[in-house]
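Regression test case RT-17, inverse folding.

Input:
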């Protein structure tokens, strides 16, 4: 029988069995991922209405860093965004933080991730409002990513921007050029100036200087860094426009609810090292896979945990705030376009029974988390190498089952 694919959750369970982390936000996230879809979070029974088939389904952790839990939330979010799409070209713009500032952001995530999103949005709106370009208010979605393909720390913001602007106080719509949105050198120059202005304001008392950036606490080292960054060309690029609203939806589905590494990219684990897929660079002809020791792999994953409560998906311009729907209605009226009709959610069809192929599976009794049962049973049946659904005999699962709360 072919072995089950290795997931990030499996690797986290193995990591936690070998290494102890002190109580922290990092250890709490790892605990959630380790317990995801295991008896540790409890579950419920699925029962066939035609035969004696029963199966236990363990609960998900629903943590936003868990690649096993993001599918449903991504689909729900994208469904809500479909009603905001306009019949115009959409552009993809990316703002990237230079490496020295990325190192600083690693120790100041909430401050500098927030600053990256705020300044990049401000720059895009400022240049778009210039009468040399669009001369109006644009609308876009920004999504923060913090990783590169090898899982190194690489903070950057992806923006999906409608190709046009509301002008003259919202009475006209000015369409962008078909294959050109805004000049990236102008965006990059303003991005560099504004970010350095704002990060300098944070230096006195708010930024933490430790680890590899500890020396930046010295005024001379900080001045040298600013001087070097002012000479560099900062990376802002715009990709060709999407083919249409359908492509925008597919892109949003892929990018908005993504974590540092998906389960699909994990190719194997030999007990000591993890092999995962990377996208090779055409310029360097790199390999399409990378192998790291388990500890190094999880340590790289932990670089990308977000601060608690941080909002990594944000709407700006005419897509922001309480006037969003009114703005969209105005734009559609100016374009002579009808609002998209939201498709009705299909009626949920119960799963067929895998035993009799006739009956339907329905939710039955709830199963208590293993933390609520006896230590002997818990230790005997909780596996550290993967979701232990098959390791718990159904008869013993039933002893933990209880009727769902009313």
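Golden output:
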């Amino acid at each position: 029988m072919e072995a089950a694919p290795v997931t990030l959750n499996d690797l986290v369970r193995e990591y936690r069995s070998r290494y102890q982390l002190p109580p922290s936000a990092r250890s709490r996230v790892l605990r959630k991922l380790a317990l995801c879809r295991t008896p540790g979070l409890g579950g419920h029974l699925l029962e066939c209405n035609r035969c004696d088939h029963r199966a236990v389904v363990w609960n998900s952790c629903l943590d936003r860093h868990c690649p096993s839990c993001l599918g449903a939330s991504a689909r729900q979010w994208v469904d809500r965004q479909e009603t905001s799409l306009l019949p115009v070209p959409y552009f993809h713009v990316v703002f990237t933080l230079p490496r020295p500032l990325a190192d600083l952001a690693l120790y100041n995530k909430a401050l500098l991730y927030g600053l990256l999103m705020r300044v990049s949005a401000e720059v895009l709106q400022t240049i778009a409002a210039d009468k040399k370009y669009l001369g109006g208010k644009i609308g876009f979605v920004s999504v923060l990513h913090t990783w590169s393909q090898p899982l190194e720390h690489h903070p950057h913001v992806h923006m999906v921007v409608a190709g046009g602007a509301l002008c003259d106080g919202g009475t006209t719509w000015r369409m962008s050029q078909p294959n050109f949105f805004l000049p990236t050198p102008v965006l990059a120059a303003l991005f560099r100036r504004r970010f350095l202005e704002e990060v300098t304001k944070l230096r006195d008392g708010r930024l933490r200087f430790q680890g590899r950036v500890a020396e930046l606490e010295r005024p001379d080292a900080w001045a040298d860094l600013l001087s070097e960054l002012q000479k560099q060309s900062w990376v802002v690029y715009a990709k060709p426009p999407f083919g249409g609203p359908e492509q925008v939806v597919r892109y949003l589905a892929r990018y908005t609810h993504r974590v540092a590494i998906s389960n699909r990219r994990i190719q194997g684990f030999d007990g000591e090292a993890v092999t995962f897929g990377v996208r090779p660079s055409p310029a360097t002809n790199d390999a399409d896979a990378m192998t790291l020791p388990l500890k190094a792999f999880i340590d790289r994953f932990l670089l990308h945990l977000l601060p608690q409560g941080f909002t990594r998906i944000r709407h700006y311009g005419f897509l922001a705030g309480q006037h969003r729907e009114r703005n969209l209605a105005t734009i559609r009226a100016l374009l002579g376009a009808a609002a998209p009709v939201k498709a009705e959610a299909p009626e949920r069809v119960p799963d067929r029974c895998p035993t009799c192929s006739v009956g339907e599976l329905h939710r039955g009794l709830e199963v208590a988390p293993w933390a609520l049962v006896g230590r002997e049973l818990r230790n005997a049946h909780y596996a550290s190498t993967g979701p232990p659904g098959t390791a718990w005999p159904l008869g013993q699962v039933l002893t933990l089952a209880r009727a769902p709360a009313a």
